[in-house]
Every structure is written in C-alpha cells, then in structure tokens.
Design a protein that fits this description.
single chain; about 625 residues; alpha/beta; Glutamine Phosphoribosylpyrophosphate, subunit 1, domain 1; Rossmann fold; 3 domains; 8-stranded antiparallel sheet; 7-stranded antiparallel sheet; 20 helices; 27 strands; globular; binds 6-O-phosphono-alpha-D-glucopyranose
C-alpha cells in the first residue's frame, strides 16, 4: 500500500506537497517522510507516525522553503516495523538518490545481499531501500548515463509490485515507475509535474492527468522535458492527457467533524448519481452503459451462474448481489472473497459464469490478480470500480459506481453505490427474460424515489446517537440478519470492528442457535435486523431465544415491523418501510451511523483507524 508523491518543475513550497500527501493518508499512516532538493543538497525529514507529526517535527524550519524537486511518502508497513528508520524516503550511500515506494519487491533479499557484498551499507529493514542502492550501484558500474537508462536496467531485475518515484539530486532528474501498483501524473503550466498514487492529491495542482499504464517509466530530465517508456513492450509510448472534472471540495470535510460522517450524509446524492441515465422513467426499463449491456446480451443464453468476487466491504456488496441474483433472475449465484477464489479457478467451466468483480479503489491486489487471471482464461467479467481510471476500470468492461472520492478509510457511501449498481445489473438481466414483469417496474419506480427516503431518514439521527452513548462500553456485539439482511449484519459488524475496535460477530439469524447462542449473556448485546417481510415471525422466535438468555437486543426495525417487535427488545432504531430489495441498503446506513457515533464517543480516529488502509495493493 502506502502513498507516494513526487514533484518536478518550477520551485514550489514543500508544504504544498505535504498537503497533497495528506490526501493519500488513507493508504497508510505508519510513518511519513519527505526529501527535496535545496541549495544543491538533498534534504530529508522522516518519522514514525502520521503526517501531522512530520509537520511538527519541522518546527517551522522548512515551512517557507521551496524546491524544484520533491518526493514524499506515507507508509503502511509491510517489511520492517513502523519506525523512523524504516520510514521512506530511502537514500543511497552517497545521499544523492532518494526513493519512495509503494508495493513489495519480492526478491529484495537476494538483491540486498548482492549489494552488501559490493560494499553497500543498508540502514533499514525495508525491501524498498534496495531501490536507492541499486540506482547508485548501476551508476557506479556505468550501466546508464542518466536516471532513465539506469532505471530501465534495474526494472528488469525486480520481482513483485512497485510504484516508485526516484530523484537524482546531482543530475536533477526524476523517474516514476508503475508496475502492479497505481501511479498517476498531473501536468500543469506546461512542464511542471506532480506524481501521485491517487487523483485527489493531484487535484490541488491540476485537473490534467496521465494515468500511467502497467510497465510505464515516466522520466523528467534536468530541463523538465518528459518521456514515457513502457518496459513491458520495450518502447517509448504516448499517453493521452485526460481531464478530470471532479471538484477539489470532495476532498474536504465541508464542516463535518469527520469525512466518514460527511460521506454517510452524501448517500442520497450517491444513489441518485449512480442511477442517473441508467433507468428510464417513462418506460421503467434499465439502460445500461453500452459495453456492459453488450457483454450481458452476448452471454445471457450461455451462462447459468453469476459469481461475485471482492474483498472487505465490497465483498459484502457482492454477497448482497448473490441474494439479488437468486431472487431476481433465473441464475444460480455465489460470492467469494477474491483472495480465496484465486486458488480454485482450475476446472471451472468459465463459459457458464458471468463474473461481477467489485472494488471501490479498483486497485486491491487480491481482487485485481484473480480478475486478471480469469480474464486471461477468457472469463466473462464486469468490473464495478468507483475510481475512474483505476486498473479495474481500465482493464475490464466496467460499470462504475458514482460515489465520488471516499476519504474515510471505512467504506460507507461506496457500499451503497455498489449495492445500487449490482441491483441495476440484476434488474437488467431480469428484464431480458421478462420485460413486462410488474415486480421489475415497481422496483424501478421505488429505486428512483429511494434517495428521497434516505435523505429524510438522515435528517434526524438523534436516536442512533443516544443508543451509541448507551452501548459504547460493551466489548462484544452480535449482529444478526436473515436472507438479504445477512450481508448487512456482516457489514454492520465490520464497521463497528474497523473504527471502534469492538469485537463484533455477524451470523445469519438462523445460525445463532448452532453455536453463537453460547456467547449470549447480559454483557453481549445483539444488533438484530428485523425489517417487515415474510420472515418476521422466524426472527421473532430468535429474538425470544436471546431474551430467554438475558441478552440485550437493539432491533433495527421499520415502521411496519416496529409493532410486532417492540415489546420483545430493549431498544429500537426505526427506519421507514421500503421495498424489500432496498431495505438492506437503508438498514446498512443506520448501522454506519451507529458505528460512527460509538467510535467518535470513544474518542477514536474515525477516518484513519489503526492498522487499516483504504486501498490494499499487496496480497
Ligand atoms: C481494504 C479497506 C476496506 C475495503 C477493502 C476492499 O481492506 O480497508 O474498507 O473494503 O480494502 O477495497 P476495494 O477498494 O477493493 O473495494
């Protein structure tokens, strides 16, 4: 993971680069560092901890300093504990070269040994430090006259995943390499270049970007002229400059205490945007983007299974998709963690399967690697990324969600957008077989009005806040839901774990009696999801089983199930009654708020929970 930033061009304040780096902090925050060219010297400052610590360690000393060549890094530790020495940038022995890296150099041990044998002295435990020493070594051995030629030789030796930026203070050159980890170039005022792992941190400078392709080497010489060479095809390449229409305000908190709360509140808009032009309200049909529609039309008579693959929260959206497919189409369906499916891709009749691969970032290594393997085998794949320009977006037929940038590490609005996108795909599949289905038309109508209901619900969350105060000190929670609510129980429990560090287990309600019931006592409250539907009396029986064991219950109900459930539970969160297929999305929003308030009341770092990173680009 990690976030890298680089800059080369006219002199700019280094604080501007640090502010850009801050927008990558979601990628990891174990340590932060910066290196820049100043009065002929290479200055470096780095420390364990977050970027704010880096800023205060400056003591105002570099606040007004400008530089023409800067690299910076925020780390999610893989090789070597989070400490000052393992923080990036890493230098060579002569302190001429500095490097920041995202990814893992898998063969670093043997390369390190070769370099040590040649007299190089390493100071850190990281795999990344070999990059600066390799550059130095290749210069020493005259294997290149400039940074580009040296890097071209070096990439041939590297195994693993790497997006790195290196600067040579002596030659005043910069190189950025993208291989299996993302890297984007922003260009402004003709020949000033900002390089970053993600778009938001570039938007502060420019909306003109070049998303590098796998294998691209971006080289800027002393005169700030650039070229891009792809080492996989071994030739110079031209990449189009794209224009990003996003507004920088999406990367600001806009008066909210945390990004997470802001992003929860944005969900009505996200629902509207993700539906935009994809449902026709005159005839109540689904209008998919051409490429997606063509792919489904092509495979619909051959497949018998829809398979969802993803990680984390996106996996929970996929699991919800599995239920949508079962209920709305004639196909079988399943959902797998991408990291698990990778090992069972053999002996599968690919022609019979439509894969739906979900990833907010579009860069999650576990998800991407299995997707690429399946693509090579000829599988039918639709990707659902949120980040436009990401690998999932570019390499696959993609049906993007339109949630905008999500900064809070715990995914909220992107889950909602994914669920809406998956529902649309299933509605389209359903409509091919039965265009006049009244259930379909009714659902499309309800889907269109859903954002208004969510908006109204979000106007008043006092009750959830009060329950967060009441329950925040419990150390364990059980989350239960049946059928379409089971993925939401999982997602609700994940949110609570991720940001409040409270242990939470989720089960399908019917499974409670097969084990988890042993955990129930007055110290383990249950968050029970009980919308009004045909399963309500089964849920009521389980609720009574919990009460008989002195378990406390918070029931998430709607205004139809409230009356049936009220007398049997300790507390309720009441939601408006909505279409059965929209209930899970709405209930999930209530659970997001509950987790948010618990974590905030505990005084935790809601937007950047410990040990996590938003985009996990390592396996
Ligand atoms: C990380 C994040 C999770 C996210 C998962 C999948 O683990 O912390 O919040 O759900 O990656 O991310 P993706 O970008 O593939 O949806």
């Amino acid at each position: 993971m990690c976030g890298v930033v680089g800059y080369k061009g006219k002199e700019i304040k280094i604080i501007d680069i640090i502010n850009s780096l801050k927008l990558l902090e979601y990628r990891g925050y174990d340590s932060a560092g910066i290196a820049f060219s100043y009065n002929g010297n290479l200055v470096i400052q780095k420390n364990e901890g977050k970027i704010d610590k880096l800023l205060s360690s400056f003591n105002g000393k570099y606040k007004d300093i400008s530089s023409n060549m800067i690299i910076a890094h925020t780390r999610w530790a893989t090789h070597g504990i989070p400490n000052d020495i393992n923080a990036h940038p890493h230098l060579d022995c002569k302190k001429r070269i500095a490097v920041v890296h995202n990814g893992i150099i898998e063969n670093y041990k043997e390369l390190k040994q070769e370099l040590i044998n040649k007299g190089h002295v390493f100071v850190s435990d990281t795999d990344s430090e070999i990059l600066s020493h390799l550059i130095e070594d290749f210069f020493n051995d005259n294997k290149g006259n400039n940074l580009f030629e040296v890097i071209l030789n070096i990439v041939a030796k590297l195994k693993g995943a790497f997006a790195f930026v290196a600067i040579d203070n002596e030659l005043q050159e910069l190189v950025a390499v993208r291989y299996e980890s993302p890297l984007i170039i922003g260009i402004f005022d003709n020949n000033n270049y900002i390089i970053s792992s993600d778009i938001p941190s570039i938007l502060r400078f420019t909306k003109k970007i070049i998303p590098l392709e796998n294998g691209d080497i971006f080289y800027v010489n002393k005169n700030n002229e650039y070229k891009i060479w792809n080492f996989l095809v071994n030739k110079e390449v031209k990449r189009n400059i794209e224009f990003i229409s996003w507004d920088i305000s999406i990367a600001e908190k806009s008066g909210y205490k945390h990004f997470m709360l802001k992003e929860i509140m944005e969900q009505p808009k996200v629902i509207k945007d993700t539906l935009l032009e994809r449902i026709d309200l005159n005839s109540y049909v689904v209008n998919l983007d051409d490429k997606v529609k063509n792919l489904i039309d092509l495979v619909i008579d051959k497949i018998d299974n829809v398979m969802y693959l993803a990680c984390g929260t996106s996996y929970h959206a996929g699991l919800l998709g599995k239920y949508y497919t079962w209920e709305l189409t004639n196909f079988n369906s399943d959902a797998f963690y991408a990291s698990e499916y990778r090992y069972i891709t053999k002996n599968i009749n690919l022609e019979k399967i439509l894969y739906i691969i979900i990833s907010q970032s579009g860069e999650t290594a576990d998800t991407l690697f299995v997707s690429r393997e399946l693509k090579n085998l000829g599988a039918n794949i639709i990707g659902i990324p949120n980040v436009i320009g990401s690998s999932l977006y570019r390499e696959f037929v993609s049906f993007p969600t339109r949630a905008g940038i999500e900064i809070g590490v715990a995914a909220t609005k992107t889950f909602t957008a994914q669920a809406i996108a998956i529902l649309l795909l299933n509605l389209y599949i359903n409509s091919i077989k039965d265009e006049d289905n009244p259930i379909l038309k009714n659902l499309i109508k309800n889907l269109n009005e859903f954002h208004i209901i969510v908006d109204k619900f979000l106007e008043d969350y006092m009750n959830i806040q009060e329950l967060a105060i009441k329950y925040k000190d419990y150390e364990n929670f059980l989350y239960l839901g049946r059928n379409l609510m089971y993925p939401i129980a999982l997602e609700g429990a994940l949110k609570l774990k991720e940001i409040s560090y409270i242990h939470a287990e989720a089960y399908p309600s019917g499974e409670m009696k097969h084990g988890p019931i042993a955990l129930i006592d007055s110290k383990m409250p249950t968050m029970y999801l009980v919308p009004y539907n045909e399963l309500i009396y089964k849920n009521l029986s389980n609720i009574q089983e919990i009460k008989a064991r002195k378990g406390k219950i918070i029931a998430l109900v709607d205004n139809k199930s409230l009356e049936i459930v009220r007398d049997y539970v300790d507390d309720v969160i009441v939601l408006p009654y909505v279409d059965k297929f929209l209930q899970p999305i709405l209930f999930n929003i209530a659970l997001q708020l509950f987790a948010y308030f618990v974590a905030d009341l505990k005084g935790l770092d809601v937007d950047q929970p410990r040990n996590l990173a938003k985009s996990v680009t390592v396996e």
